[in-house]
Every structure is written in C-alpha cells, then in structure tokens.
Amino acid sequence: MTLSVFLKKRNFVSALALSAALVAPAATMAGEVTLKSADGTVNLVGEFVDFTDNNYVIRTGLGDLRISASRVRCEGADCPDIGGTDADVKIAGSDTVGEGVMPLLLSGYAAFLGAEATETATGTRGQFIAELIGDEGFGDPMGSYLVTSTGSSDAFSALLDNSAQIGMASRRIRPVEARALRDAGAGNMISTSQEHIIAVDSLVVITHPDNPVDTLTMEQLRGIYSGEITDWSEVGGNSGPITLFGRQEASGTRGVFEDRVFGEDVPASPEGMTVAIDNNEMAALVNGDVNAIGFVGYAFQRGAKAVSLVNECGISMVPDAFSARTEEYALQRFLYLYNTQNATDAPTADFLEYAISDAADEVIAKAGFIDLGIDRRAQPFDGERAKQLLDPNVDEYESGIMREMLSEMVDYDRLSTTFRFRTGSQKLDPRGQLNLERLVDYLEGEPEGTKILFVGFTDDLGAFDSNRDLSIGRAEQVMEELRNFAGDRLPSIEMGATGYGEIAPSACNNSENERRINRRVEVWIQSANG
Fold this sequence. Notes:
single chain, alpha+beta, 11-stranded mixed beta sheet, 5-stranded antiparallel beta sheet, globular
C-alpha cells in the first residue's frame, strides 16, 4: 500500500487530517485507486475498500481513510461505478461554467427552494450529480442534476443529440451551431428564452509569481502566442525561454482568447505549446514553472500572477468587476446557459429562471465570477477619463466637445450598466433587455430627486457630427425604452439624454469587436443630495 499526497495548502492538510475517519477494514479489498481533487492539490493513492454515504474509503499506510466524493474524483480500474446517468436534468458543456459556477449555483438554488443539495462525483472526470432534498435535507427528493464539464462546443452537440437539456458555454453560440439546432427543431438559440447570460468573466493572462513581468501590450501577447516572441528578455523580463501553455481547440476559453487577441487571423499553435485540459490544470502548470505563461478564467488564478494588458491606443486594461460589467476589458466574456425550445419541464425551466435572477448574484460572486449586478463609480477631475478628455492633440472643435463632456461628467457617477448596438443600428444587443430589468430594480431603491443621464457614444466610422447625432438618438431611444419598461415604477427619477459621438472611446477602433465596445449608451447618476 502507498500514500502519495501532494498538497499545496497547509490548511487543507490540517482539515483533511482532522476529518479523515478510520473505518473497520473490509473483508475483501479491490485494487489500487487514486483520489484527486479538481484543483490538483490532493493526490491520494491506496486500495479501494468501499463507497458509502457519498464517501470513498481507501486503505493506506496510515490506515483506512474516508474522503468525501464531493472533494475528489476516483481514477483507476477498480473505482466504483456510482451512476448518475438517470438524472432529472442533464447539463453539459464548458468546464469554466461546470466546475467554476455550477456547484455553487446548484447549492444556491437548493437554498432558494429551502432544500439541500448533495453533490456526488460519478467517477467520470469533470462530472458530478447534485440531488436536491426538500426541507433542508429532511424532506422528499426535489430533483437531480447531472453536470458534465468538458468544453463549450460539447454544450451544443449535447443539445443537438438530446443528451442534455441545458448547455453551458463560456462563449456565445456560433452561427453554424445555431443553424444546426434550429434545423433540428430546437428553436431560435439566440432568443431571450433560450440564451441566458448568467455571469461575466475576465480571461486573465497569468505568469509564475516570481516572474518580474507585470504588464504586456496586446502586440507582445500576440507575439508570444504566435511563436514570434520566445524569450522573456524580449518583453522586459529575465533571460529565459517562455514556457507556453494553451487550451484544447474545443475550449470556449481558448476561442474567446484567440478572438480577442488575434481577431480573424488566428495563427497555428506554436510548436512546443502545452495544452492544459482545464482552467485548474492551467493554473497548476503555470504555478509550477517560473518561465510559464497561460490564461485562465478570473476565478481560476489560484495564486498565479495576473498580468495587466495595454491596448494599441495606450489604454491600460485591468480585469476588475466594473470594467468587466461594462465590457471594457479586452479579454472579457459572458458565461451562458442554453436550452432548446423543447426543454419546458419544470426542473429545467425553474432552474434557468433562478440562474439569471438577482437571487443568484451572491453565489456567482462567491464562485469568483462577476455577477450581473450594478456598480457605481465616481468620475473625478483627476481620473483616467478626465485626462483623456484633456488631450491637447485634437482640433479646437473636438476639444470644445470634450470640455463640454468633462464639465457635465464630473457632476455624475457612472453606473456599470451599459447598452450596446450593432453597426449603424439603434437595435439593442441581446443583453439589453436584461439591463433594462436590472436598472429599473436598482433605480427603485434610489431617493426622490435622483437624476439619470443616458449618454451615447459611437465608433469612429463616419462623419464626426453625424456620429454625435447618432449617439444622441441612441441615448434618447434607451431612455424611452426604460420609461416604457418601468411604467409607473420610477415616478421620482428625473431622466435626460445626450451624446458625444466618437470621443472618449473605451477601446481602439481597429476591429469590429473594438468598435462594438465603443457603440454604447452609458448611464450616469446624480443623487438628490449631490
């Protein structure tokens, strides 16, 4: 018998030592198995004895240890088959959502229902089943949810072959995937009844904590992931070869990263790049190599050093909650749940309704992701935006509009709620309806006399004055849509609209995605007491 324990957290070692229970030896023993935690910090090897009460029992040199199946997965030919394929609701797709959000989201849903969720690993990598028991665990079963975490592409293939009712994705569905599902009778996959944004995530470029490089330009990042830059000394670091880590092609995380970094011209993977299976493995690999670089979802940094990014326009981008909610961080993305139009059973529909409600915000934040709540931020004279508006390298006409914006801006805070539009269109993007709902809920709690200003902006395509007119029109449209949506719920809120066209961009205008970021209506707020 052997015991191999690789632990990076001393507190977990202590907790494991205190909670490991010695149990009576079984009459017969199976072969050797390995119990591993999802984050790679635990690796226990021993002889399988039993699986009981959602616990693995293995025999080691220290005795028989009882380990909760919710904390580890079992690997080896003698691991038990603990089932789970007959769940009421099957959920499949992105490991970012499945491993990072879903365990806490299901626990939160259970608490919302007054129930308790019991999570059990099935023995398959990246898979667990959660069973909801009413009356805080003392009542009757209320449903079971099987979660299988692989990659975002698998979400749509699982929906297509009806092996799952809910698909998890860390990227938006692609047109070819949506058409295939539509043709199979699944409905309109980008309708608000089938496409659900549950959280915001920022992809974080990470290095080893001892790496002295703190900032990379987007050009440098492209050079590293295209194989053109191979030594840290080329980007201001110590001399040494860059150890490059990436993700598998089916990964939604990789898809978003390549889209944001390279746009449409994605190069072949550099020779020597190591592929990590999931976010946890990526973080573990980077933390184990001083010359390493990789990228993970915001919730999966696990002690690695986050690198700040600078775009081609010199705008520094930090993956904080506010910039993620406004979509002004270049590697920001949404996390999605998808369902077909046929998934109308109560366990599926009720869970989806909870997942996009403000009741889920707390558990999404607890999971380390960014919920869809509303932040408020001051806009002071000495802030980065004010400095941008004082740019001396513009003509007098444009400078006058910048000063006009600055004089109004400093009297208002900015809310993270931001509305966006397609090119040349006044049609809101798919997040717009959700933004309206959240904004009305937020404003209902504001005091009488609060002022709201909808402020429009555009990309730089087209004439300057025409863009300003377009930005004002979009701001007025959002204001009217909010009024119509709110009805008589906001009688004491004063509203106005203005626009400043292409000034004060949030991103460069070099790509369609960057121009989309700049086509926006911001929401500024001034409380009654100033």
